[in-house]
Design goal:
- By secondary structure, the chain is of the alpha+beta class.
- The chain contains one helix and ten strands; from the N terminus they run αββββββββββ.
- β9 and β10 form a beta hairpin.
- The termini are far apart.
């Protein structure tokens, strides 16, 4: 043979089949990757739209009342309340006042931001100091872990829920723990209607 000649070795049928399959496999994998990115983007967009819809549904003027427990082992006090809430795609705020026995009035505010279904923010109640809120939404209810600015009912931990009830109802509850028994106690329940 001459020095520049190449020896051509014929491929077996298996090698030919493998060579033809490889480009096709790469093409399929690329297609699946693109579909996955499109699907993930669609899910994220749908979740954002869902949160915005929920937040806008709790916007408005609200009136109603409920009960507040003044101390562990004490009696519930009936209160009447009014509240205004504002919301956009990623945050909401609440500004309200509750009155008991037509004499004592207490205001409360909450400012909360959302990231997907997770929420965080602050709540200011009777103490006048901001307490931390951190939680998530499930269905029509946002559940928060609360860290009070000061010890309340013996500690600084509690749970708060904001629940959409029907199209025109809103229920706000706080649940604390009895330090002596360890049992959970409903300390506040407000049932409000859109006014």
């Amino acid at each position: 043979m001459s020095g520049g000649a190449q020896i051509l070795v014929p491929r077996t049928s298996g090698e030919t089949k493998q060579a033809s399959v490889l480009p096709r496999t790469r093409c399929i994998m690329k297609y699946v990757s693109i579909l996955s990115m499109i699907f993930a983007g669609a899910v994220a967009s749908s979740a954002a739209a869902s949160e915005e819809s929920f937040l806008k549904s709790i916007e408005g003027q609200w009136t109603g009342g409920g009960s507040v427990l003044t101390k562990i082992g004490g009696s519930n006090v009936r209160v009447s309340c009014k509240m205004k809430s504002d919301a956009d795609a990623t945050r909401f705020s609440m500004d309200g006042t509750c009155r008991a026995l037509a004499l004592v009035s207490r205001s409360f505010t909450a400012k909360v931001a959302s990231s997907g279904i997770s929420f965080s923010g602050t709540y200011v109640g009777v103490s006048g100091k901001p307490s931390r809120l951190s939680g998530a939404r499930r269905g029509n209810t946002i559940s928060f872990d609360v860290t009070w600015a000061n010890a309340v009912y013996g500690d600084r931990k509690a749970t708060m829920t904001i629940q959409k009830v029907g199209s025109n109802g809103l229920r706000i509850r706080t649940i604390d723990r009895d330090p002596s028994s360890g049992k959970s106690i409903l300390t506040t329940q407000l049932d409000l209607r859109r006014s």
